[in-house]
């Protein structure tokens, strides 16, 4: 059981001391809370095996707007998921955790989203027991190569930063004890190229530092969507066709066959055009909907699309 305000990174550090680890973790782990992930709902690293973040949460204690304190568990937990705190203030959460194990990673590049999709479909079909599948699109890989170097008193600290291919760069991660034979074959049968161990190590070390590329921004226009895996490539194609700015995208595959696409467009808040360009976020949301997907998390804009508000929680 944890208090809802604990930061994921801190929780993971604490669990490690007891030989344990969280099952799923968002890439915002250095600053986001366990309660925030339930209230906003989401998926993260580990979601290929363990599904949505809330699927690793057993129960939650909530202070309702009436002042009443209630526990939500099992099916009732749904009354909290993605409701952005409108059900009440979550104070405690009981989480499912796993044994801490050494993990291995393989990174591979794919020339387009269809090839990446094919590799993931083969992995799913063959039940290759991976823990996490996450990827960057070519625009993001390119920006990572161009991101400013880490300096300390003028000295470059990350001299051996590897150069990423400007392609879809996917990282497959699994506990070292598991038999994942068939993984490299699945990558190569989709015309993917297995990258160096140095890149795989670097990519996983960078998991929680994705906003580094924002230094090139200076601002980002975000659009977070969810699409079914079978439509992922057509969603990428549509985005390329309709959005004139480069769309940097980080993706995560979920156990239910959906893919989260966290999209960011570089812009400048100081520019007059920034406000109009923000509407591109809605264009990306429309592309997701046309491809059988939806907005990723509700937020205030999409809240009317959510049926589950606090009245349901109190009245049922
Ligand atoms: C760099 C970056 C990477 C990200 N990566 C991911 C990712 O991998 N997966 C993902 O799903 N999302 C991701 N996000 C989005 C976001 O960080 C997560 O959804 C995160 O879980 C939000 O948690 P938070 O603690 O920051 O909540 P906040 O942003 O502070 O709050 C989110 C909502 O939840 C409500 N809320 C927060 N705490 C409580 C509480 N205790 N009780 C009731 N309501 C509450 C708030 O009122 C608000 O409506 C990312 C964001 C960034 C900037």
Average pLDDT level: 91
- Return the CATH class of the domain at 104-214: Alpha Beta
The number of distinct β-strands equals: 16
Low-confidence parts lasting 5 or more residues at pLDDT below 50? Answer: 307-316
At CATH level 3, the topology of the domain at 104-214 is: Alpha-Beta Plaits
**Ligand catalogue:** flavin-adenine dinucleotide
Indicate the overall shape. Answer: globular
**What is the number of helical segments per DSSP (H or I, 4+ residues)?**
12
Name of the CATH architecture of the domain at 104-214:
2-Layer Sandwich
Largest sheet: 8 strands, antiparallel
Task: Describe the protein in words.
By secondary structure, the chain is an alpha+beta fold. The protein has helices at residues 8-17, 34-40, 47-50, 113-125, 138-146, 183-189, 197-205, 232-242, 274-277, 280-290, 299-302, 310-315; strands at 2-3, 20-22, 57-63, 69-73, 89-95, 97-99, 103-110, 132-136, 151-152, 155-156, 168-175, 193-194, 219-228, 247-253, 258-267, 294-295. Among the domains are: 2-99, Uridine Diphospho-n-acetylenolpyruvylglucosamine Reductase, domain 3 (2-Layer Sandwich), CATH 3.30.465; 104-214, Alpha-Beta Plaits (2-Layer Sandwich), CATH 3.30.70.3450. Helix content is 30%, strand content 26%. It has an 8-stranded antiparallel β-sheet, sandwiched between helices. Helix 4 (113-125) packs antiparallel against helix 6 and helix 8 packs antiparallel against helix 10 (280-290). The chain is globular, with a radius of gyration of 20 Å. The model is unreliable at 307-316 (pLDDT under 50). The structure holds flavin-adenine dinucleotide.
């Amino acid at each position: 059981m944890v208090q809802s305000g604990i930061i994921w990174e801190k929780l993971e550090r604490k669990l490690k001391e007891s030989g344990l680890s969280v099952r799923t973790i968002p890439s915002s782990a250095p600053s986001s809370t366990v309660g925030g992930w339930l209230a906003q709902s989401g998926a993260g690293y580990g979601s290929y095996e363990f599904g949505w973040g809330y699927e690793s949460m057993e129960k939650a204690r909530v202070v309702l707007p009436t002042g009443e304190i209630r526990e939500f568990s099992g099916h009732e937990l749904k009354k909290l998921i993605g409701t952005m705190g409108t059900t009440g203030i979550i104070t405690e959460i009981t989480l499912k955790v796993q044994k801490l194990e050494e993990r291995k990673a393989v990174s591979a590049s794919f020339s387009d989203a269809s090839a990446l999709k094919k590799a993931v479909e083969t992995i799913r079909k063959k039940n290759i027991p991976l823990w996490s599948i996450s990827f960057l699109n070519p625009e993001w890989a390119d920006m990572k190569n161009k991101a400013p170097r880490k300096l300390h008193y003028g000295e470059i600290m990350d001299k051996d930063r590897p150069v990423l291919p400007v392609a879809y760069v996917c990282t497959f991660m699994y506990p070292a004890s598991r038999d994942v034979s068939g993984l490299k074959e699945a990558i190569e049968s989709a015309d993917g190229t297995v990258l160096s161990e140095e890149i795989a190590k670097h990519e996983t070390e960078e998991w929680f530092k994705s906003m580094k590329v924002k230094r090139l921004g200076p601002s980002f226009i975000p659009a977070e969507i969810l699409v079914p895996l079978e439509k992922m490539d057509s969603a990428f194609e549509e985005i390329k066709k309709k959005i004139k700015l480069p769309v940097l995208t980080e993706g995560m595959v979920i156990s239910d066959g959906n893919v989260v696409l966290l999209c960011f467009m570089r812009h400048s808040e100081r520019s007059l055009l920034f406000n109009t360009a923000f509407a591109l976020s809605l264009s990306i949301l429309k592309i997701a909907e046309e491809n059988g997907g939806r907005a990723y998390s509700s937020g205030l804009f999409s809240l009317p699309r959510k049926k589950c508000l606090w009245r349901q929680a109190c009245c049922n």
